[in-house]
Amino acid sequence: MDLIIGIIIGLIVLVVLVVIHELGHAIVAKRNGVVVEEFGIGFPPRAWGKKLKNGVLFSLNWLPLGGFVKLQGEHDAAHKKGDYGAATFWQKTKILFAGVVMNWVVAVVIFTILALVGLPKILPNQFVVPSDVKQVAAPVQLSALVKDYPAEKAGLKAGDTVTTFAGQPVNDVQTLISLSKENKGKTVPVIYEREGKEATASVALRDTDTAIFGSTLSQRQLIRATWSAPIVGIVTTGQFTWVTFQGLGQLVGDFFGGLFLQLSPDSDTRKAAGESLQRAGESVAGPVGILGTIFPAAGKAGPTEVFFLAGIISLTLAVMNTLPIPALDGGRWFVTALFKALKKPLTKDREEKIQGTGFMVLMGLIVLVTIGDVAKLFN
Question: What's the pTM value of the predicted model, to 2 decimals?
């Protein structure tokens, strides 16, 4: 059930974010004299369409995997009035990166709103304005229980939040750990909450120096601001954007470094290469991973986490579309800029070959990553 709910939530979020991205392209294209022929939600086959007063065909399509905008004369070599190809290089730059800007703006808006109500603190150096911010810690949660250990034997479950332990209030993880050590070997009352209901369990603690209670503990921290919320939203978007670029750099380094090391005759070096490639594989999540793993977890945690992940995915879409990968916005701009710098004509056939090859490679990678995602889900 969590998987199904996660896929539904994930599809809605992804479609909305992609549609906003495409809307950026459409708005800037029209403002720069390029004719927008169609604006579609989802991908063909078409389910419904209507011609709007401004001449744009608005369509709803059967494949709910995002959206698209179709411009007149999308090839760089097109030259008729209203063609994308007839626009200046600066106008093409604005059109291509308008979607990126829209996704960053969405991330800023999401993080700003969350800063007002409670923005999850994920990074150790996550930005705040000290004079305005208030950091709120959520109750201590049991994130995972050890089989046949005191917590599980007492009937506690993963997801329970502990409010009182051995008669003492639990405000943070360290308090619960300290109380466990102070009462090891004793049977203590533990007051906890599960699905909004409070209950009490008697836990017979182990008389050891480790694994006294038998549970992994976690505690969410939230950042709340007032007048500085927009500043927090902007800077947080910048921080997570930088972290995303760093993650991509690490991924590329692990992948190509692993491939290079595989050529070594030394067995230890090849072993290190395998570990590098494994890290690369584990750090990648495709559509199935996002829809089937990340969003169900967020659904369990609550709307704040779903909203937060929507912001992260929005800025990730922005980052990915700045990269010089053919078939993506950054790739299209890079090819246009390259041929302009070389002072060579970018013909329709040449552009189609470059973008088509890039698209096929991208789809191949998505298929491979999806296979990995499915394997992770079954494991």
Answer: 0.78
